[in-house]
Design a protein that fits this description.
Oligomer: single chain
Strand order of the largest sheet: 1-4-5-6-7-8-9-10-12-13-14-15
CATH class: Mainly Beta
Order of helices and strands: HEEEEEHEEEEEEEEEE
Helix content: under 10%
Structural class: mainly beta
CATH superfamily: monomeric porin ompg
Number of domains: 1
Number of helices: 2
Distance between the termini: 29 Å
CATH topology: Porin
Largest sheet: 12 strands, antiparallel, barrel
Shape: globular
Radius of gyration: 17 Å
């Protein structure tokens, strides 16, 4: 998510990130690290790396009380392609996750997307509040920007809502369908929906992933003539230690 490429529009991702935020509260060791390589860093459906590979990594601390903090980073291309001066994204976040009964888990927190030295007319740095409710394999999440969103002018109070699920299909394989909708405040032409279906496989301490990502938009912002929202397949490998 950046002036639309700015719309980091999805790791989990799955690449949260990434970009996807980890299920921190269930780890025996409260401190963990992760490193990954992906063929294309997609966020909310939009490529952040001009459809090229990215190197990613992060650190998380989860307290037994349910509170957690963490940081995660990735190489990117959309800002430099758009005339700015940032080759990395560094996300910092903090939150609280707990089971409230009946198998329902609630997760709330704050997420800051940092683009050091991005030097764009409207800063790409973005602050979001998020809340998620999980039941069984499904998670419904709502994200709300409390600043301009990824370089869009006058875009405070933009929202992203997504529904995903993770199914254990046996043999160390999981299947994760996802659908999300990005609304860009006062920039309705850039609002869109993204979809993905990802298969992950745990093997020898690594997680290998392959997913199909699609959106209902064309996005050429910061892509040097490439459609950053085009349908495509993303493969990745991740290690947590």
């Amino acid at each position: 998510m950046k002036p639309f490429a700015a719309l980091r529009a999805a790791a989990l991702t799955l690449t949260i990130a990434a970009s996807a935020l980890p299920a921190l509260a269930q780890q025996a060791n409260p401190l963990s690290f992760n490193v990954s390589v992906t063929s294309d860093y997609r966020y909310r459906g939009i490529s952040q790396t001009r459809l090229k590979p990215a190197l990613q990594g992060g650190v998380d601390y989860a307290h037994s009380s349910g509170f957690y903090v963490g940081a995660w980073g990735s190489t990117i291309k959309w800002i430099s392609d758009g005339g700015g001066d940032a080759d990395v994204e560094i996300d910092t976040y903090a939150g609280y996750k707990t089971e409230v009964g009946g198998g329902v888990t609630v997760d709330v927190g704050f997420l800051r997307y940092n683009y050091p030295g991005n030097d764009l007319p409207v800063s790409a740095n973005t602050n979001e509040l998020y809340g998620a409710v999980s039941f069984g394999p499904a998670t419904l999440k709502y994200s709300h920007s409390i600043s301009n969103l990824f370089g869009f002018a006058d875009s405070k109070n933009s929202t992203y809502i997504d529904l995903s699920a993770t199914f254990d299909v046996g043999g160390g394989f999981t299947l994760t369908p996802h659908v999300g909708h990005q609304k860009v405040k006062n920039n309705s032409a850039f609002s869109y929906t993204d979809y993905s279906l990802t298969v992950n496989k745990d093997w020898s301490g690594f997680t290998f992933g392959a997913g199909f990502v699609a959106t209902n938009t064309d996005n050429y912002i910061g892509g040097k003539g490439k459609d950053l929202g085009k349908n495509g397949v993303v493969v990745s490998v991740k290690k947590v230690f």
